[in-house]
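Chapter summary example: a protein plus iron/sulfur cluster.
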Amino acid sequence: MIRRITYRAATPETPTAVNWRLRGACTEVDPELMFPSTKQVEIDAAKDVCRRCPVLAQCLKDILAAEGGKDPAARHGIVAGLTPTERRKIWRQSKKDTA
Ligand code: SF4
């Protein structure tokens, strides 16, 4: 089954993200900024948006739960100040910590 995720700014819609995501700093920037190329300067610009975000903690908790162990290639954009690979690494570490 293919699950389609609709984006509003950079934050994916998930069941727990309905209210807080509207306060995300990424809602105030061009959504394309949160989906950088592989250029470090673009990645850093997206991460800078997350660094000043008032809902970073909620975003991180939600995206880790929503993406789970998904392959980095199936993840998109900078979310919670992290690249797809960084998010997967944190998710895997959290699973090891609770095992
Ligand atoms: S942490 Fe980043 S991706 Fe998440 S809501 Fe804030 S600005 Fe958007």
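Key point: Residues 55 and 96 are 26 Å apart (CA to CA).
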